[in-house]
Amino acid sequence: MASLLQRASLFSLGIVLPCVVLAAALKVDPAKSSVSAVFKQMNVPVEAKFKKFSAQIDYDAARPEASKAIMDIDIASFDLGDPEYNQEVLKKEWFNAAQFPKASFASTAIKPNGSGKMNVSGKLTIKGKTADVHFPIAVKKDGASTVFEGALPIKRLAFNIGEGEWKDTSMVADEVLIKFRIAGSQ
Questions:
Q1: Residues 6+ apart with CB under 8 A from 170
Q2: DSSP code, position 99
Q3: pLDDT of residue 18
Q4: DSSP, res 62
Q5: How would you class 122 by CB atoms within 10 Å of its CB: exposed for 0-12, middle for 13-18, buried for 19 or more?
Q6: How wide is the angle at C-alpha 15 spanned by C-alphas 11 and 21, nearest 5°?
Q7: What is the torsional sign of CA 106, 185, 36, 66?
Q8: Which of 22, 121, 140, 173 is most exposed, with the fewest beta carbons within 10 Å of its own?
Q9: 40-97 per-position pLDDT tens digit
Q10: CA distances from 30 to 50, 52, 72, 91 (A)
Q11: Is 65 helix (H, G, I), strand (E, B) or coil?
Q12: What is the distance, to the nearest Å, from the Cα of residue 17 to the centroid of all Cα atoms in its chain?
């Protein structure tokens, strides 16, 4: 009887397992990847990079809707190109890096949108505030790597970035563009 039950279970697994399609985890190449924020200060564009971040991308080119992406950004790695400015933006009025050391993104849906393009939806958390976001990305091959590029527009005040006197958007604009390029291979 046990042998019949074992054979039935193995037969069932043999039918079910091939039907389960899992997206493959990509190994992200930090040297070919980047995350930055572009904003205007006194109407002059400024781009600052996040030097430390991690990304986990499970990608299935044949079924992009089965794909998932998670990203964590080390807030203390924000680099404006000047050590004094870097320390200033980590303070409570800006990123409050002591209390909120990471920003994160987790996809909730990825949908194809034409050749080499996808629409991504997910949850973005910065400074303890979480918002639903939607943005397009481009996907392309670069040698053995798959590259995901995009830009996510946000409003900094929606995440309490710039409190007190810094809520005034005449000095630092409310609009921020988070640009990313993530390269990974299997």
A1: none
A2: T
A3: 37
A4: S
A5: buried
A6: 140
A7: negative
A8: 22
A9: 999 999 999 999 999 999 998 889 999 999 999 999 999 999 999 999 999 999 999 9
A10: 12, 9, 13, 27
A11: helix
A12: 30
